[in-house]
Amino acid sequence: MIHALKLFNSLKREKEDFKPIQEGRIGMYVCGPTVYSDVHLGNCRTFVSFDIIYRYLLYAGYKVRYVRNITDVGHLLDDGEDRMSRGARLDQLEPMEVAQRYTVGFHDMMQIFNTKAPSIEPRATGHIIEQIKMVEDILARGYAYEKDGSVYFNTPKFLEDGYPYGELSGRVIDELLNESRDNLKKQDEKNHPSDFALWIKASEDHLMRWPSPWSIGFPGWHLECSAMSTKYLGERFDIHGGGNDLKFPHHENEIAQSMGACGTAPANYWLHTNMLLLNGRKMSKSEGNTISPTELFSGNSQHISKGYSPMSVKFFFLQAHYRSPLDITDDALQAAEKGFKRLMETLKVLDIITLQFNASATEKDKEILNTIRESKSHMDDDFNVPNSLASIFDLISIVNSLKDGHISSQEVSQSCWDTLKEHLKTMIFEVFALKNDVEESSSKSMDGLMQLILELRADVRERKDWTTADKIRESLKDAGIQVKDGKEGTSWSYDI
Amino acid sequence: MIHALKLFNSLKREKEDFKPIQEGRIGMYVCGPTVYSDVHLGNCRTFVSFDIIYRYLLYAGYKVRYVRNITDVGHLLDDGEDRMSRGARLDQLEPMEVAQRYTVGFHDMMQIFNTKAPSIEPRATGHIIEQIKMVEDILARGYAYEKDGSVYFNTPKFLEDGYPYGELSGRVIDELLNESRDNLKKQDEKNHPSDFALWIKASEDHLMRWPSPWSIGFPGWHLECSAMSTKYLGERFDIHGGGNDLKFPHHENEIAQSMGACGTAPANYWLHTNMLLLNGRKMSKSEGNTISPTELFSGNSQHISKGYSPMSVKFFFLQAHYRSPLDITDDALQAAEKGFKRLMETLKVLDIITLQFNASATEKDKEILNTIRESKSHMDDDFNVPNSLASIFDLISIVNSLKDGHISSQEVSQSCWDTLKEHLKTMIFEVFALKNDVEESSSKSMDGLMQLILELRADVRERKDWTTADKIRESLKDAGIQVKDGKEGTSWSYDI
Questions:
Q1: Mean pLDDT of all residues in A373-390
Q2: Using an 8 Å Cβ cutoff, are A356 and A409 in contact?
Q3: % pLDDT > 90, chain B
Q4: Best of A54, A64, A70, A96 to disrupt the B interface by mutation (most B CBs within 10 Å)?
Q5: Percentage of chain A with pLDDT > 90?
Q6: What DSSP letter does each residue of B86-141 carry, written as one string?
Q7: Among A47, B7, B319, B370, fewest CB within 10 Å belongs to which?
Q8: Are A448 and B210 an interchain contact pair (Cβ–Cβ within 8 Å)?
């Protein structure tokens, strides 16, 4: 059965019952990365949050089309050097080469965090035709105007006709007068400071450029998401997500563009993730208060005492609700690492516990099944991961108590145990998508272990304890390891 | 110093000295996968071959822009079912969702084979504007004509004006009359059977479609590579590569399109990889004579006796020159696996050999340095990987002889040893991009080893051999392993 969900809708500033447009189906659009620099840790948190939301929606029985774009329109300029060889294509800086490097880096990082690829991952440069079409639609409905090859959205006209502008971000147009991102450049061209660019005529040195009815130019930076969400999810879809910092102007302008082009708002529910702090303060490169994912993994940063595995970091992310800020501190990371380790140890034990459970239902069953239910209903309630995890840890305690004999296995029925086992694995590995990345570092340990075994083997041989020597030989063979005694001593290798 | 190279140019059917258009720089375009099904093993071989070529060009001192496209224009049709809900976007089959699934699968497979991402990976759907522009250019120069919303290349006119058609594939136009791929459909629209489509008007049920000056339609399947290679590498670039099966009509038509649009052929050197056979015969699904990469890895196929690791398969690919066919047989795979294992074992030994080498140059040095030179000159000679590998294996033999004492370390100078070590690692890990994927399966072995150690530990304790017990404790601690003695016996875990 499909779960009923409650979502906190940023547009209404309250939790609402979720009603999909089509029963059982969800269209979800999330603003993806700009691929002209390495992905920030804050972005990683956002994409991990939406990955868990995506995975939970699938778990909850929905058929989901999850679209996350790649912003690969880069505003790189011809540096003017080497003009003599401009004709030689290979000498020119190629924005797509830069975009490719960071797209690959982004995908690698998403894989490191064990996230699922979205259903569609459209690129802004791949949808110029659709963006031009949208500008034409907005122009045709009278909510944009052209000036010298550029096209601007007409915000006052939009408001005049009763459309909302500022509803999502809670800003009023007077405030916007002083804040508009486009204030500084080309403001002479705009009729009103709150108007924003839909299409921009390219200057001589702007490398990325496409033909359009108005000029050789490029799309304004809000347009791609409107055009691509419409193309793949329709004019109106269920969920639009992104980081808090995108509420204004990006998402506000997306709403205006969609309403300008076709009269309807794009999404019914807007979900926004909150920011990452570092030692209580906003991350800021200029103040040195920043840490990158790779620094976090390697420990190569003044802000942390050691490196943390990607899954420990991910588990740390899960400690806060997606709508709450999360403060990175070394202490909090260490605590998360410990919790993660405990979780993984218990999960490792799950399959090897061989206890005699009760054949029929018990009192304890009720408690366990109730906690399982809780861990899901917390997720149904606006994807409350930390609360759900708390229930999961209650279940983990029960497993450990069973293992240690503090609870007798006769107090729990076999069927309840099976349900519990299945539920823990599904939630941890499929929904939260954690995996044991500590285990994976085993090859470092292998050399140490093999050295120890070879020393013990030498002792055994010296003692002429052939029974043990045989046992060692057999065990190594079973473990797929080949030992060779040579001139320089004994060496070992995997037996392919 | 940049290496001088010889390339076998398919266009000339002979080996030529390679002269880049710009000194020290190479623009290379390789036809990538169509992402509407899983990547074939034959494609994997092609992309692995070009990956090694790309890596070797970098090693040889060139600055390379390597472009490999993704063909994501899919010819999926609206199945006509469920017409009532056609307005509901989520109910419609979305070609990009299919393309995304197989693009991700393709990237995963390329990662499994340890290939580098190309410098740019353009998508056909992302370059419709550029393709339309190219059709306009061909029309403007008189080498195409429009019929009922579709545009066709005018092959007879092209030949009439003295341009070559059939030069790459060695076909003459009379032969083409009976072979043209487009023969069966719409041939009534074409003036001549050898003409081919540049733009195709979309039928009612064709899902992917874009506006153009001629019709709402989609580009012909040869056009994307011409448009994208021109965009990212210029009208004329150095190397164009692909599988042998693409020579005709795809590459032949690419040449015609470029010449038709701007008068020059696109690439100076055409490189083509040869095909994979299975048990001496062409792979064919209908005859059951086929094997997929995953079947090869898992062993789940009637054609092989067991699974082979991805690196064993890659090493098998390296046994043949890229221009030769390669026959997959279980015996050949087993032989490759053995050779690969031997290679990895020797490379593992490289860093741990502690021999006293000669302080000054020796006679043996000359032989070693000469073999190193050979291993490179084979690669300079049209990327002859098998010959280069043979030289590498001569070096491997020397390393093994040194290790076993068959050659005294005094016969080799320290500086020569350092060069040898560096060269082997660079060629194997950086150029051929192999890695020890046997090592990585160590976690399976870990459990077996730990079980053995814990048993030995119990024996030792029973014997009250505290010295050995202490040694075991210390070694495990050093290996990062924590042992807990509990009620249910002893368990172990990694010590985070």
A1: 98
A2: yes
A3: 75
A4: A96
A5: 75
A6: TT-GGGS--HHHHHHHHHHHHHHHHHHTTPPPPSB--BGGGGHHHHHHHHHHHHHT
A7: B370
A8: no
Q: Residue B82 — pLDDT band, cuts 50, 70, 90? A: very low
Predicted structure pTM score? 0.89
Characterize the bridge pairing of strands B217-219 and B196-201.
Answer: antiparallel
Interface test with A, best of B86, B452, B457, B470 (most A CBs within 10 A): B452
Encode pLDDT of A190-248 as tens digits. Answer: 999 889 999 999 998 899 999 999 999 999 999 999 999 999 999 999 999 999 999 99
CB contact under 8 A, B119 and A97: yes
**Hey, which residues does B358 pair with through a beta bridge?**
B413
pLDDT digits (tens, 9 = 90+) for A390-406: 999 999 999 999 998 99
Residue of B91, B96, B236 to mutate, testing the A interface (most A Cβ within 10 Å of its Cβ): B96
A405, A445, A468 ranked by CB distance to B480: nearest? A445
Q: Which chain B residues touch A443 with a CB distance below 8 Å?
A: 439-440, 442
- What HEC string does A25-83 produce? EEEEEECCCECCCCCCHHHHHHHHHHHHHHHHHHHCCCEEEEEECEECCCCCECCCCCH
Contact B452 A475 (CB under 8 A): yes
Give the side-chain half-sphere CA count within 13 A for A190: 23
**Number of cross-chain residue pairs from A and B with Cβ atoms under 8 Å apart:** 205
Report the complex ipTM. 0.87
Residue A175, token pair as written in the block: 């405030």
Q: Do A89 and B233 touch (CB under 8 A)?
A: yes
Q: Is A273 exposed, middle or buried (0-12, 13-18, 19+ CB in 10 A)?
A: buried
Question: Chain A contacts of B108, Cβ < 8 Å?
Answer: none
The whole-angstrom distance between A50's CA and the closest CA on chain B is: 18
Place of tokens 């919790």: A339
